[in-house]
Amino acid sequence: MLNIKDTIMQKLRETEECYQVKIVLAIESGSRGWGLAANDADYDCRFVYVHSRDWYLSVMDNADYIECASDTVFDINGWDLKKFLKHIMKSNVVTSEWLSSNEVYIKDEAIVKLLQGLAAKFFNPIAERRLTFIQTCHAPYAAVNYGCRHITRQWHNNQKNARTFTSNGYT
Question: Regarding the domain delimited by 4-122, which CATH topology (the fold level of the hierarchy) does it fall under?
Fold first, then answer.
């Protein structure tokens, strides 16, 4: 009989075969990924995958996620690399969680190193969507919040103007 991790690895291999993708990162998310799981916690496996070159060259919009198992024990799903990159550029905290998980099933060292570098470059601790939440919770401090919003917009404008794409990547 397979243990839980072997079962997850088997499901990941089946996913690669079924969808004709290569999984470059597969991690445990949620309480198990943080090392805080209760004995009865489910397994939240998340992964990043790549398709063949032709899939990316298609003019058709294709699904950019895969859901392969969801029940009381397993919740396994993943994002296409392009979707993951878009979320890195938005400073989405989920990407940071996936890149820093304590429980790793699959890891392509070269690709993950590049993703971590991009995540560090694009990380914005005061992204406007987070600032909106803070402003809602701390409405009495409106003058301070206005100042933060102004700084955030200024930071975003500087970042947009500062990044240019070259053949060697973003500068």
Answer: Beta Polymerase; domain 2 (3.30.460)
